[in-house]
Structures
1.
Amino acid sequence: MHGQLQKVKCPLSGKNQSWLKDVAATDLCHCCKTPQPLRPDIVWFGEMPYQMEQCTDALMQADLFMSIGTSGQVYPAAGFVQIAAHAGAHTVELNMEASRGDFAEGYYGPAAKIVPVYLDTLS
Ligand SMILES: [Zn+2]
C-alpha cells in the first residue's frame, strides 16, 4: 500500500517502472511529451495509499487482525482495526506501547520478542 522502493514513477502520468539506483533530479520520464522529473514510487503523507480496495476486502474477510509496530495515528491505515473488528475479526496490537486503537488484545514490548510469544498462543 505504500509503494515500492525499487520503482520510480512519473508524477504526471502515474506510470511506474523498475529503478534500482538513486533517483536524481535529472532523471526524466519517457512517457510525457515534456519529460517530467521522476520520483520514487512511494506514497507520501497526504497521498492516497495504493490498493485500498484490496486492503478493505482483506479486512472484511479477516478472522484475525494484527497490528505490529505502528503508532496507529495515520489514516487510512489507522482505521483498519475498526473495519476488521466491525467485520468480526479478533484484533490484536503488538507494539512498544498501547496506541489509541481499540484492540481486543494487546502485547507490548519489542516486536522481536512479543510477536513470537503471541504466535505461540495461536498454536
Ligand atoms: Zn511522464
Note: The chain has two domains: 3-42, 52-122.
2.
Amino acid sequence: DPDLMFIDTGIELPETLDNVRRVAQKHELTLNKREARSGYWKNVDYFGPSARDYRWCCKTCKLGPTSLLIEENYDDGVLSFIGQRRYESHQRMNQGSTWDNPWVPGQVSASPIQDWTALHVWLYLFSKDADWNEWYEKGFERIGCWVCPASDLAELDKLKEEFQEYERFEEVLEGYAKMKGLSERWIELGLWRWLDIPENMEELLEEDPEVVEYLQVEKSIEDMLEHERTRNLLNALCDVEDTLFEELDRDEIVRLHKKALNCVECGVCVGRCERDALFFEDGIKIDPDKCVHCGKCLGKCPVVHFNSRVLFRQLDE
Ligand code: SF4
Ligand code: SF4
Ligand code: SF4
C-alpha cells in the first residue's frame, strides 16, 4: 500500500488533522507526517502576512518540510498523488496533471482528478461513503491553512465567527496595519491578501493609497565576504580556503549572503544535499569537511526568492 504523506503546517484547522487521521485509519495507510520546523508564527514577523502573490508560507511551512520528509524516508524519491484540480485556480488550470516542483527535489506529483469539477468530487465521495472535512458543510470551497490568503471574504468571516484562534491572526494583521499606517479597511476588505493589489480592486484603495512601491538597497560584496556565516556558505561554490573570490559569481555571493543573514530554517536546501553537509545552527550552515562544493543546494530558497519584498516591508517601517 502507498503511504499517506501529510505536512502539518501548524496553521491547520483541527478538523483537517482529524480528517487526515480518520482517512489513514479507515484505509489502513501508514501516515507519514511531518510538522513544519519553520512555522508560520515564527516567521510572520520577518516576512509579514503572506499574500496570494507572496506565498512565503508555502515554501517554509509546506515545501521545505516535504523536502525533508522525502529526504529522510524515501531514498529513491516519491510519486505523490495529490487531489488538485484545474478549476481551483488560474495557476492550477495551466499546470497539467503531472509536474515537478523545483522547491522539492525527489518528488514527482500527479493529480488523477485534474479535470474533475467539484460535482465530480462530491459524487465520488458520496458513492464511496467517504469522510470529508466538516468545514465543507459550513460553505467552504477549499480548505487550506486558516490564515490562507487564498480564502475568500465569506470564508474568513466564517472563521472569525466559529474559530476562536483566528483572533491570533487578527492581532497579527492589526499590528502590521498599525506599523504601516494602514486603515482598518485594509483588514476589513481583505486587502492583506495581496501585496500588489490587482487592477480590478484598485478602486477599493481610493481611501488607502499607501500601498506598494519598490525599494532596493545595495550592499558591497566586500562587506558580505567579511561575514562569517556567508564565508561558511561559500563552501557551496568553492573550497573557501583555496579560492580567489574575484573568480566567483557576484550574484551568487549576494544570494548566499541573503541566506546567511535571513535563513528561516525551512529545510528546502537541506533536502538537496546528498552529502548530509547542511545543518541548522541559528540558521543554515555547511560542514566544510563533508561538503564537496557541488552547488546542488544553491537552488530555490524562500528568503532569497522573497528578499526584495521583505526588504521593501522592512524599509517601509
Ligand atoms: S495553503 Fe495558504 S496559508 Fe497554507 S501554506 Fe499554502 S498559501 Fe500559505
Ligand atoms: S549540496 Fe551539500 S555537498 Fe553540495 S555544495 Fe551544498 S552543502 Fe556542499
Ligand atoms: S537557506 Fe533558505 S532554503 Fe535553506 S533552510 Fe534556510 S531558508 Fe530554507
Note: The two ends are 52 Å apart (CA to CA).
3.
Amino acid sequence: MEKVRGVGRRIFKYILRKWKLLIAVASLNVIGAILSVYVPYVSRLAINDIVYGDVSSLWFYAIVIVSFTVGHGLINFVSRYYSEFLAQSVIYEIRNDVYRRIQNLSYGFFHRINTGQLVARVTSDVNQVRRFIIQLVSGFLGSLITFVSAFAMMLSLNVELTLISMIIAPIVYSFVKFLVPRLRSFFIRARETYGDITSLIQEATTGIKLIKALTVERAFEEKFLTLNERYLDSMLGVARYRAIFWPTLTLVTSLITLLVYWYGGLKALGGQITIGDIVAFSLYINMLIWPLMWIGFIVISYQRACVAASRVFEIMDVEPEVKESPNARDIRIERGHVVFENVWFSYDGKHWILRGLNLEVRPGEVVAIVGPTGSGKTTLAHLIMRFYDPQKGRILIDGVDVRSFKIDSLRRQIGIVHQDIFLFSDTIRNNIAYGKPEATMEEVMEAAKLAYIHDFISSLPQGYETRIGERGVTLSGGQRQRLAIARALITNPRIIILDDPTSNVDYETEKAIYDALTRHFRGKTVIVITQRLSTLRLVDRIIVLDKGKVVEEGSHEELLKKGGLYAKLYRLVFSRE
Ligand SMILES: Nc1ncnc2c1ncn2[C@@H]1O[C@H](COP(=O)(O)OP(=O)(O)OP(=O)(O)O)[C@@H](O)[C@H]1O
Ligand SMILES: [Mg+2]
C-alpha cells in the first residue's frame, strides 16, 4: 500500500509537469460543468412559468437551454482533445524515460530478465498507465467537477430531494465495483489467450520444418483449437456482463426518479416545492450517472494502474551494474595493449567463471584464445568491452583501467564480432555503418572488401541498399558473419575481438578473410576466439583457457609438443576440419 501510494505520487508528478495543460483542461471542464448544470436549472424556471401560465419568457429560456447545451458540447469536445493531448504527452515522457533507461542498462540486465517480460512491461504496462492517465484527466476530472457543481446546485434547490437523489451514488458505485473486476478478468483471460494464440501461430510458422519433421501437426492443431475456444468463451463472458449492465442501470435510475417524483409530488401538493424542482431533479439524476460511473471506475482502477506503473518505474529505477565513473575520460587507445590482472568474475555471485585470470596481449599482436566450451572465452571478451565489471582484479588497456574510460569511448575504439550475430532489419549499408553512421559509401565498401563480402553485395540487384531480414534478403550464416566483421572494421578500431568469427564460413572464405584481416590488422591488436586450425596456425600466439584460467600458451607447434589440453583439444576438435 505504501508502495502504491508512492507510485501514485510519481504518476501525478509526471502529470503536474504539464501543469499548463492541466490548468487549461481543468478550466474547460469547470466552464463545461457550469453550463451543463444550469440547463436543468433553467428548465425548472421554464416549467414553473408554464405551470403558472406565464409564457412570456419561454423563448428566452429556450435560447438559453439550447445555447448552453451547444456550448457545453463544444467545450466538451475541446476539453476532450486537450485531455487526450495531456495524457499522451505525459505518457510520451514516461515512455522516453523507460526507453532511455533500458538503453543505459548493463548487458547483464538483459540476460537476467526475460526479454518477453521486458517487452510486455514497456508495451502493455505503459499502455495500461496511459489508459489510466487518459481516464484520469479526461473522465475523472470532468466527472468530479460536474458532480460537485450538480450537487451544489441540487442542494441549493432542495436538501431532502438531494439526499433522495444521492441514493444513486452508492448504487452506481457498487454496480461498477461488482462489474469491473468481472469484466476485467474476462478481458485479461481473453488477452492472455490471444497472446498464447499469437505465439502458437508464430511457433507453428517459424518451426514448421521441425513440426513437419516430427510430424506433430495434429498436436499443434488441437492446441490451437483449445485456445481458440477459450478465447471465444472469454469474449462471450464480456458480452454477457455488458448485456446486463445497461438495462440494470436504466432500471435503477428510473426507480430513483420515481422516488423523487413520489416524494417531490407529495411536497409539491403541500406547496413546499414546485413542479419545476421535480423536473430539475430528474434531469440532475440522469446527468449524474456518467460522472458517478467514471469516478467509481477510476477509484477501482487506481490500484491496478499503480501496479502497472510500479512495474514501469521499477525498470526506470534499476541501477546499471556497469556504471560510468564520474571521472571517466575520453581516452584514445594509442597502442592497444591489453592486460588482465588477476581477474575474478562471476555472473551470479556464486559460480566463478574467471578465476584469477592473468593475460597480456601486446600491442599489434594477433592472439588466439581457445578452450573448451563454457571455459569463459566470450566472457573474457565481454569484460574488455565492459559489458560487465569483474568482481576482483582489473583490466588495463594501454595501462589504463577500463573503468577510467568513458564507456562510449571505450566501446567505440574496440571492434567486436559477437558469437551470436545480430543484424538489424535495415539495409546492408546501414548494417555495416551502424557504429559510424557518418561513414561514406567508400568507407562502407572498404570495410566490406576487407570482410570479403563486397563481391556478394555487389551481385545483389540493389547492392548495398538491399534490405536484410523479414522484409528483405535472407543471408547465410557465413554471409552474416562477414557482414558483422565489416561492421567491426568500419570504425578502424585499435583493438579487434573476433568471437568465433569464421565458424560458419567455408575454408576458402576463411582463408581470404584471414589474409585480408592480417594485412589490414598490421599494427592492430587482434584477439580471436576460434576453433579453426587454419586460423590457429596464423596467429602469433595461442592462449588456452580452462575453467576461467590460462592453462597454456605458445605457438601451435609448441603447444602440440607439450601434449597438454591444447593437444587434446586439437585431436578432438580442431583436426576435424
Ligand atoms: N549471461 C550469463 N549469465 C550467467 N551465466 C553465463 C552467462 N553467459 C555465460 N554464462 C556462463 O559462463 C560460463 C562461460 O561462458 P562463456 O560464454 O564465456 O563460454 P565460452 O568459452 O565462450 O564457450 P563457447 O565456446 O561455447 O562459446 C558458462 O558456464 C556459461 O554458462
Ligand atoms: Mg563463447
Note: The beta strands are 338-346, 352-361, 366-370, 392-397, 400-401, 414-417, 495-499, 525-529, 541-546, 549-554.
